[in-house]
């Protein structure tokens, strides 16, 4: 029987054979804020930046790149200290990575873009829209959180992740791989810290997505949506954290429709329709 990891890798397999994340024909390194950020660009049209989650890489979006690149100029990169974007620093922050992505758009001479963020990429997307609002036309996030505690994450999920974190924290002599792994676990366990008052200042239309059995509590996803002025909420039934993989067709079509149509304020009698 295949392991969970093997099943996940199988689901991430490119539908058209293109080695996303290892495509030498389009891949390029950019000197961004003290490290080399690996990036691939596909398609033509309005710019669309897609940001992966903790410990992920470009290849996580093998089901999104071919769909969106038919219509958009898709920009996908390996975040700092992940994938091919190595970083020797001893710590990470979501603010740091949001600034990295703003700098990447500058390096690509892109003034603003649609943005998709999954998991930690959703946190990065929120902070990109807060710290560099001019860079984000519309934002779609799935599986994002505001705080690193059990108000946002179910305790059973917290209990799965925390033993590895504490084991590496207490280990004095870490290998280079363990140092990088600990850096990513610290990010997961100790951050982010985004206030509701900050969300109130996000001015781009935002689609907030989560699964009803996500690693982020549905009520926390609702809280995010309720505090962003121009937002829609989409909670998928029978769904965990990997919505862009498990429900790739629904995800792609819904996000594309959100980007394509004007944001609609729904109040008063409009609530009946």
Describe it.
- The longest helix is centred in the middle third of the chain and has 16 residues, at 155-170.
- Mean pLDDT is 94; it is low at 1-7.
- This protein is α/β, with parallel strands linked by helices.
- 36% of the residues lie in helices and 19% in strands.
- It has helices spanning 4-11, 65-68, 94-107, 120-131, 155-170, 176-190, 196-199, 218-226, 243-246, 248-260, and strands at 27-32, 35-42, 46-51, 72-77, 113-118, 136-142, 206-211, 231-236.
- It contains ten helices and eight strands.
- A hairpin with a 2-residue loop joins strand 1 and strand 2.
- It has one domain (4-257): Rossmann fold.
- Strands 1-2-4-3-5-6-7-8 form an eight-stranded mixed sheet, with helices on both faces.
- The protein is globular and about 65 Å long.
Radius of gyration, Cα only, in angstroms?
18 Å
Tally of DSSP helical segments: 10
Class by helix and strand content? alpha/beta
CATH-level-2 architecture: 3-Layer(aba) Sandwich
CATH hierarchy, class = Alpha Beta
- Average pLDDT over all residues: 94
Low-confidence stretches: 1-7
In sequence order, what are the helices and strands, one letter per element?
HEEEHEHEHEHHHEHEHH
Shape: globular
How far is it from the N-terminal to the C-terminal residue, by CA?
A: 48 Å
Strand tally, please?
Answer: 8
Q: Tell me what portion of residues adopts beta-strand conformation.
A: 15-25%
Number of domains: 1
> If you consult CATH, what is the topology?
Rossmann fold
Strand order of the largest sheet: 1-2-4-3-5-6-7-8
Determine the CATH superfamily.
Alpha/Beta hydrolase fold, catalytic domain
